[in-house]
Amino acid sequence: MSMARLAAPATWIVALSRQRGPLRLYQWLWLLVCALGALAAAAPRILSQPIRYETVATVQIDAVGRYHELYTDGQPDDDYRAVEMQAFELLRARRPDLGGPTYAVRFVPYSDGRVEIIAIGRAPLEAQVVADEAAETLARAVRAAGGREILRNLMGWELTEALQGRQPETAFQRLLREIIRTQAFPLNRAVEPVSAYITVDQLPQEELSDLARALEVREAQLTRIDIPALEIRRTTATGATLQQIDADLLRLTAGRQAIREALAYLYRNLGAAFAPDAPGDAYRASRAPLPERAVDRRIPLLLSLATVVGVLFGAAGVAIDRSAGAMRKVLELWAYRELIRNLVLRDLQVRYKGSALGYLWTQLAPLLLMLVFWFVFSAFFQADIAMFPVFLLVGLLPWNFASEAVNGGARSVIDNAALVKKVFFPREVLPLVAVLSSLVNFVLSLPMLLLVMAAVQWMYAPLRAIGAWTNFSWTFVYLPVLIGIQTIFLAGVALFLSALAVRYRDTVHLIGIFIQFWFFLTPVIYALDRVAGPLAQLVRWLNPMASLIEFYREILYGNAVAFGQIPTPNLPALDSVLRVLLTAFATLAIGYWYFQRRSGEFGERL
């Protein structure tokens, strides 16, 4: 290794850490553009922050006595988290739009059994009501966790009585047998005969309360979750599947009726109605106060931070320019803009040469691919995502842009070997042309996307029910920002792979496999927020395209919601956009550095 190569990193470090001489005019302009650009990109997100109100209610659980199984070594364990998840599901069943930045609930448990329920609402009263309801639901779910074992013992004795041929002595015993018969109350352990004589009127008051809460929770699950889910599946089922669903519906409906009658018996005969604020082993210790003011949106601080980030980014660009002559290279590429334009036009003409439909393939190809995925996921996987064709197409178009750019970029230098050997021009023009031609193809397909969105939304019944014909949003104006970030990222990938393919020809054959693997790691045909938390976060950080697809969906489609709900377009989180932007520029810098380092070998290797 030569001394020049060893000294190169040191030269870069000195250039980036200590600049000499005054900045030139274009460098000052670059700093200004970066600062204003960061501000312009961040301002819509910052200024459009919704007004939110926050309040807190409290639940107290007996963590060392009756409900000690929910805690391990003084800390909430998996059993507690299962109870918390059950409470949240019940809340979501009653309030389907719960979740998101303006309408949410969060549980914060402590080792002493205290649980803070933090609720966020769009109005003070909404936040207060949700916090109190969530606290009551959690207290009910905790008691239900204890009541399930009591119910299992009661059903075990009743099973013993039934096996011995004895008739039920009370209405409650008859209802227990109906619950057993219909299997309407699944338990973590199967009901088994027990020899100990036990009836409901023998239970202490706390155990009686737990039993009633278990039946209440199960009745709510059947009414709001299990039976509606079966009814939705029934609309698309056929044959044996339809018969099984009908049988399950009849069974669970009968079981729900038995549970309701059992609850009425407990309320009427044994006084088991729930008083959530009455002190006990699990109760709502304090109600939520009405919020006096909205949550501080910190608009001046965030705008200042965005400006500082822009200035720092601009300063890094100036440092790179002064050490590596980046502006010189940009001006050189600008001088060859006619060549770039002609090569892009040539690529587009070759793409559709000899085809009868020509340009229309930019519209038809992604549309047909969307129809294929729609058929497969609707017919075989029962995808439950609202306006699924729009969901698919918004992910497919940016992915096609990435796939074409990477495929074309990797082969760009090899496919133009004759041009490289005979004509002098900046070699990086070739991978950049591959990316730009794919970009033009992507932009030309956007009108078809808007037409499909309008058609699907016009036919979507929940939108028409509220008097809206489309769900278009002003967030569409953010589209050029995302296209720009994706283009920068793909340019870096194309530069790197084009140089690598010249040096190692096997790269060209591996690209297809790599893109297939990359496709399934990118949420094109699924929603990443439905993947387990840590894995989803890892995919976002290691795969910039995953974040970009999510950004496109956020501004064009909205959040992924179940069929029957309405997705709401929004702007992506500012910190996530900045992270992907920095990743894109880092990819471009690495790709360009590697391309420059290998470009001198192209003549002899081609």
TrEMBL record:
PROSITE patterns documented for this protein: ABC_TM2
Transmembrane parts of this sequence: 299-320, 356-377, 383-402, 429-456, 476-501, 508-528, 577-595
Location within or outside the cell: Cell membrane
Domain ABC transmembrane type-2 per the UniProt entry, residue ranges: 357-598
Bilayer disposition of the protein: Multi-pass membrane protein
Gene Ontology cellular component terms for the protein in this record: plasma membrane
GO terms for biological process, alphabetical: lipopolysaccharide transport
Keyword terms: Cell membrane, Membrane, Transmembrane, Transmembrane helix, Transport
Domain of life where this protein originates: Bacteria
GO MF term set: ABC-type transporter activity
Keyword Transmembrane helix attributed: yes
Keyword Ubl conjugation: no
Family statement: Belongs to the ABC-2 integral membrane protein family.
PANTHER family for this protein: CAPSULE POLYSACCHARIDE EXPORT INNER-MEMBRANE PROTEIN CTRC (PTHR30413:SF10), INNER MEMBRANE TRANSPORT PERMEASE (PTHR30413)
Protein name (database record): Transport permease protein
Organism: Roseiflexus castenholzii (strain DSM 13941 / HLO8)
